[in-house]
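General statements about sequence and structure are easier to judge against a single worked case. For one protein, we set the task of working out the structure tokens from the amino acid sequence alone. This step matters because it turns folding into a mapping between discrete strings. The amino acid sequence and the backbone structure tokens for this protein are reproduced below.
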Amino acid sequence: MLSSRQNGPIQAPEDPETREIVERTAALVGTHGLLMERRLLAVNVNDERYDFLRSREDHPYYDFYRRKVVEHELTPDDEPSGDLLLFTCPPQGITRKEFGALKLTAQFVARYGMSFWRDLIHCVTMNPNPLFEFVKTSDINFSLLLRLVDAYEMALEPYKKSCLHRTNPKETVLEGFFYLVQGEKHSEEVGVQLATIDLHAFVSGLDFIASREVGQLLPPGVLSTQMRSGALPPSDEDDDDDDDDDDDATLEVHHPSPEEHQYYPLTYPQGITPKQLGIIKLTALFLVRYSWGFWVGLHTRLILKPHLPFGFLYSPDRSYHLLFNWLTNVYVGVMPAPGRLRLSPAAREIILDGFFYLLEDGSDIATSDLHAFVGGIDYFAKRENYEKSALLPQHP
């Protein structure tokens, strides 16, 4: 709706740069809604070029801006939100590394909101990096970033700051983000250690879930085998990349020191293998996201195929079952509650097919990739629960 004070012709910006900013902002808001307007205001809080958003009716360019917004609202979107290419194919002119950084950025914005976004903008402004050109509103891939943020917001629970002011983590969210982008090892404090990072493997679990939220289910592809997740305690065998028996090797049990937090399970059951741990984590992830529909469908299939490796579901006295329950509890803090989510029989079968495909030996998905698949959820869960554990009473 145009301003009621406007009686004469609508005034367009005369300066080409200002006009480009106004028109690009209108295109983003017309496509993504008023939430995008608030995001842009928060990011450009000290930028006078965006005063037309703050002054609104009192600004000479506001009516021009609103008219452009309406034009974009009435223009059909040529990029359907359910397009699987959103998650799988880098747009023309962007490298695979840049696409991975773009998706990781979208996940962090979806999880940590505008505070992370402002910190990132400030950081890349003070330290220019061509890898992050997509954060500029003038960049051709900025719209793709916003679409991914919208998709991931449906798969991630917004971060709650209730305990942040009472903790002082050595590794900030922004530092953790850049460690992931650069492929460096993470702080021991948040319980994450990653060697060679494949960002596409790391974000693949959330890609799978988010693609379901936007209307289609992303077929699980063959992930990179370069990544070894820090979800696994280090073992001597990890240095032998040619060892094909990793699935059967048992994990070294990690006994936390007294100063380490106890909220997230840092101790794995004696004798558990990487394959077993990967199955438990994947099952917990799907259960938290798809709730009762997935749970019923899984048990139905296990009745028909009792030989499948899901004994941890039926043995309450076993440490594997306790680990499974523990993981479901911490994943709940990262992923939104299903609420009234009701899966149709067809949707349930699609989700179960995707779940079991990830576990099939013939799918070419290595055990290390299974841990990579849940790596993003693990990372957010471990940060969340480190902060919560800092509030627990300290034992002498």
Summary: The chain has a mean pLDDT of 69. The longest helix spans residues 96-126. The two ends are 64 Å apart (CA to CA). Residues 276 and 283 are 11 Å apart (CA to CA).
